[in-house]
Amino acid sequence: MAVTTLWDVAYFLSSGLLGVLAHILPPLAWLLTNPNLVWLLSALLFGAILLGASMINTIMLIWFERKMLGRFMDRRGAMHVGYAGLLQNFADGLKLFRKNTFKPREADDLGFYGGPTAYMVTSLLMFGVLPISSGWSDGALPLSMLLALVIFSFAPLFIFISAWSSNNKYSLMGGMRSAAQMIAYEVPILLAVVAVVLVAGTFDLNQIVLEQQNYWFWGPLFLALLVFSIGMLAEMERIPFDLPEAEAELVEGWNTEYGGMLFAFFMLADYLRALAGSILIVLLFLGGWTLPTYVPAVATSLPLAGIIWFMVKTYLVFGVFVWIRAALPRVRTDQLLRIGWMRLIPLSLVAVVLAAALVLVKCLPVFGCVPSMGG
Amino acid sequence: MAAEIEKKQNPSAESPTGAVLKPLATAARQFARSLIRPSTILYPFERLEDPKFRSEVAVESGRPIGVGEVWDNYRGVHALNVNTCISCNLCAFSCPDLCIEMVTVPGGDPKHPKKCPQIDYGKCSYCGFCSDACPEGCLTMTTKYELSTPNRKDMVYSPQKMFEQFQRKLPMNPIRLERPANEDAILLDAPLCIGCNACARDCPTNCITMLDIPKEAPKPGEKAAKRIWKEPVVNDSDCVRCGTCISVCPKECLFWGTHS
Questions:
Q1: Residue B168 pLDDT greater than 50, yes or no
Q2: Do A76 and B30 touch (CB under 8 A)?
């Protein structure tokens, strides 16, 4: 099905731009109309659009969370900057940007400034790997899912570096908690992913989504979805598992000493990771950009339809995380470890065995809860 | 191990499923209810006394519709009817915070300028004693409660400003015009009086009249008094017991007391 994808938009922009330039500068027309240059520029434009879109989506995610949390608490959330407070977070970001960045006297320069930056950069790298729509399949990597998870698990390293180098006991405790928690919850997450890989038979995220064209994986792999979501909650350090930032015990956890733009880096990177985690859940379990067959074909043939439906699913998944945040209290350290080691790991092992059994008996389509079509 | 300890300490601890699912259900119910309209109103832009909230508020409070959540006995900014004010000073006298100052307003004669209260809301405690004390019912309290200002001087409300509040006809506290049962009356120590007329001149209600009273009945064989002596007589039903006469009396011959 011919569907306008983001790559088409980038290519159109690039060829249009270079065409205008060639018209203005005829002597350089031979260079500007070179298809390789057009391709290069469109790749750059594609990356720029992706970068901008992921940043804007992250900020919108914060808005979404604030509004939803407001309703959970019987209030309205941000209301005054922009329509329904849409621009509130941009205003907050501008405020943080204009603030002074200070450093504790005994803090280590490289770690203090390098940590947040590396955290931010690695979080942004995720979006170069995650396919958002069918237009991504051209440059796909055969092991893109593993790459995504590897980039995702860089975080505790940089959090720990920045926590240690800010020379504050609360930061250090928060950083240690964060590292311990993230590394512990990597195990059930990877095991849950193994279940997906067993069923899909590939490590390529594009292929995993294509495998879900007939049935989404959340039905047969419900256990794996459960384990993956809880593990993701811990990886994002969101509220039931936000021990590293526990305001009641550690002042602000590992970002106690950070202010201004560096704090904004942490905040933004946290939500970038939340967005990436939601995207991973959509990709692995909820069919990516595909839609059920009973949805009218108009919905799937719109320009950029894949991206739109993908983002809708992502926001819904994130909405569930907000719901959990609004409902559940923070767990204790012993509860965290008990959930991780005594519940999630056995559950994920069961999920792997179940997935293997399902593949063996070839009864997956029976569980195909939502028949779907290509997007 | 930790689970066993916890169970021992709190045997009625819920199962993990219940501990997770029950709060989730509660939060979802709250979300669904709040999605229609949250309880929070956007205060500076909409108020509970707006007509659109009127019905719910009136039903909840069981009070007649008309003033919303701010009931008509709410003690807010004062309204002053400058025209009926008699400059009796009772409001300033009764103020526990000393925030009322009597300032001159146009309308009096040059010798005895008319004075009306000016209230500093930076000091006011909204006790309402002043409006209770007001004998004419010209100083009352309205339901206006928004006073925030960046300038401290704006907190001082002149009589003209409070007269504007009066003209806006905001819902006001019920005016209590019947006097409190006060046995006190203005009494005269007659031998001291020199008949100077100051009390009658300054009485805000004109309830003091100077009556011709012979100073002393002439004894037989003595001449009658040369001058006609005057003594103040207070009409107790008109008197508002403001004490102006006592304070202006040069010979301190007027005092509080009871007719007995």
A1: yes
A2: no
Q: What is the signed CA dihedral for A5, A6, A12, A13, rounded to 10 degrees? A: 160
The mean of the pLDDT values for chain B is: 78
Nearest beta carbon to residue B35 from set A71, A323, A335? A71
Query: CA of B8 to nearest chain A CA: how many angstroms apart?
Result: 16
Q: Does the pLDDT of residue B15 top 90, yes or no?
A: no
Distance from CA of B122 to the nearest CA of A (A): 30
pLDDT tens profile A99-120: 888 888 888 889 888 888 999 8
Give dist(CA A237, CA B100) in Å, integer: 58
Highest-pLDDT range among A130-144, A146-160, A251-265:
A146-160
Q: Report ipTM (2 d.p.).
A: 0.73
The pLDDT of residue A368 is: 47
Strand segments (E) across chain B: 78-80, 100-105, 114-120, 139-141, 156-157, 185-188, 208-212, 230-234, 254-257
pTM: 0.72
Nearest by CB: A323 against B27, B33, B35: B27
Domain region containing B228:
185-216+224-257
Kindly report the CATH number assigned to the domain that includes residue B191: 3.30.70.3270
Identify whether B59 is part of a domain. no
Radius of gyration of chain A measured on its C-alpha atoms: 22
Domains in chain B, number: 2
Q: Is residue B56 part of a domain?
A: no
Which residues neighbour A61 within 8 Å (Cβ) at sequence distance 6 or greater?
A: A271, A274, A275, A315, A318
B85 and B123 co-located in one domain: yes
Evaluate whether residue B55 is within a structural domain.
Answer: no
Percent of chain A with pLDDT over 90: 13
